[in-house]
Amino acid sequence: MECAACMDVASIRGLVDMTGMQLAKEVLRQIARMEVGLRSSWENSVREEPEPYGTDSERYFLHESLEVYQRSLQVHRALEAIWQSGQARSRHVKRVDELTTSLTLNIAEGNGRFSKIDHRKFVATAEEAGTKLAAYLDLLVSSTPANIERVKSYLREVMAMLSGLKRYLDE
Asked: 0.85 cut: is pTM over it?
């Protein structure tokens, strides 16, 4: 799940073309199917609700259909002006890169977990990354070509969804 999320982020950042991303995700989907098959063979140890893997031609993994995941990708897209600018090497922009990536990857990874405790741990890590990201965005407001208010709007939505998901996982 995390590798698939990395491919989405790499695509948004222009580091991989659509064909490369699709090929990589197809390989990752095959690996995920094998892992699900392995888990199914351990009937007394691990159980998974049956899911129709690979039935949606545009989605390779289940986390890709989550609104919170898609909104986290919008955060990356809204920061495109930063990734394209010469600012990409500044200390604050590097930290924004790390935090946006952590936010997205932990959402994807958490969704792939079978226990609520594991899922909650990844959601909490994503929420922590989002909180820190908001602070770093404040530092960039005056020095970046990106529309920080739009980025923060998407981030607020992500954080609200993560908070709700955390409450659900606590039940």
From this structure: no
